[in-house]
Automatic annotation (TrEMBL):
Lineage: superkingdom: Bacteria
Name this polypeptide is given: HAD family phosphatase
Signal peptide segment: none
PANTHER family: ALPHA-D-GLUCOSE 1-PHOSPHATE PHOSPHATASE, FLAVIN MONONUCLEOTIDE HYDROLASE 1, CHLOROPLATIC
Annotated source species: Pelomonas cellulosilytica
InterPro entries xrefs: HAD-like_sf, HAD-SF_hydro_IA, HAD_sf, PGP-like_dom2
SUPFAM superfamilies: HAD-like (SSF56784)
Length: 206
């Protein structure tokens, strides 16, 4: 089986509400306020941020657009955009899961919506080539989940039939898109529940 990992919220820490609360303590006092600000800032990874994810605009342009759209000071918006790489730290339990899947003989790949600057940071900071045989970053291939084309690109890149791929992603819409292409897929909530799912599918031993 070829197991395909999403990155943000799966392999790397990504919780926008608490992230914004840390970066903007003067503006955000509660996680509820953080969630509201995140919805406006990231637009559910569509809009301006979706174009950034897809590699169609750069960091300076996404900062400009968000500042214009929201009225937040450009310097504050830039602080958030610059702080994202430090937020993307490996989740230890997922790293253990990756190692266990490798030990069980499975081939691992990744499929991540990630702007090019952040993809470059992850590639240079962490042993992606040790964890994964290959992978696709949206910002590099100019396609984005949940669009069908990036899943088709992944099938070619991973040299796999859809039914031979199992996808772990924390966004249900991306999981639904994978299932629509006849991938196996499940929503990732945490490494422990993912491990139970993999055991139930007989990909890992209990």
């Amino acid at each position: 089986m070829k197991v395909v990992f999403d990155f943000g919220g799966v392999v790397f820490r990504w919780h926008p509400a608490s992230f914004l609360a840390r970066v903007w303590p003067h503006r955000i006092e509660t996680l509820e306020q953080g969630a509201q600000a995140a919805a406006l800032f990231f637009q559910n990874y569509g809009g301006d941020w979706g174009l950034f994810d897809q590699g169609l605009i750069g960091a300076d342009e996404v900062v400009r657009r968000i500042a214009v759209r929201t009225g937040w000071p450009r310097g504050e918006v830039e602080t958030v955009v610059r702080a994202v790489p430090d937020e993307l730290m490996p989740i230890p339990a997922t790293v253990v899961l990756i190692r266990d899947l490798q030990a069980a003989g499975h081939t691992l790949h990744f499929l991540s919506n990630m702007p090019e600057p952040y993809a470059d940071h992850l590639s240079s900071s962490y042993p992606l080539s040790e964890w994964f045989v290959s992978g696709l970053f949206s910002g590099r291939v100019k396609q984005i989940k949940p669009n069908a084309e990036i899943f088709a690109m992944a099938e070619r890149q991973f040299d796999a039939a859809p039914q031979d791929l199992l996808f772990l992603d924390d966004h249900p819409v991306n999981v639904e898109a994978a299932l629509a292409r006849d991938w196996q897929a499940c929503v990732f909530t945490d490494a422990a529940s993912a491990r139970r799912e993999l055991v139930s599918r007989r990909l890992l031993s209990a």
